[in-house]
């Protein structure tokens, strides 16, 4: 009987050694992953509208600027440009200010022919578009018309860009 118990014990021992340790238990599950994209637009960059260095302003001085906007795909937007900071400026006649508060008149247009003033009136003088998720470039067409030339110096202005969506 002792031999039989020994044989059974050896068989159990050999069976454990032969098969190795019992595998670890596992469990599985899932996690939810999400993001909510909301409509958004932003001004990415705007290059300076630099009319360069001139003497007497006796002819049109034309220059362009690029305004880069980015909006979520499918988002309709408008871009408006205010009158700037020059005293008495309007969107039709903006004013760069220089020495002794002297000014140089200029305008910003939506078209290359420089016939459509770029302002802030929705449905009127703004530029419209629809976002595609990428940066979209808009060209601002500037013009300094012939005018009485003020004193020598640096003349400047700041125009606010507003994207409405």
UniProtKB/TrEMBL annotation:
Range of residues in the leader sequence: 1-24
UniProt entry keywords in alphabetical sequence: Signal
The keyword Signal is assigned to this record: yes
Every Spore coat protein U/FanG domain range: 28-162
PANTHER family cross-referenced by the UniProt entry: EXPORTED PROTEIN (PTHR37089:SF4), PROTEIN U-RELATED (PTHR37089)
Name the UniProt record assigns to this protein: Spore coat U domain-containing protein
Organism expressing this protein natively: Rhizobium meliloti (Ensifer meliloti)
Upper lineage: Bacteria, Pseudomonadati, Pseudomonadota, Alphaproteobacteria, Hyphomicrobiales
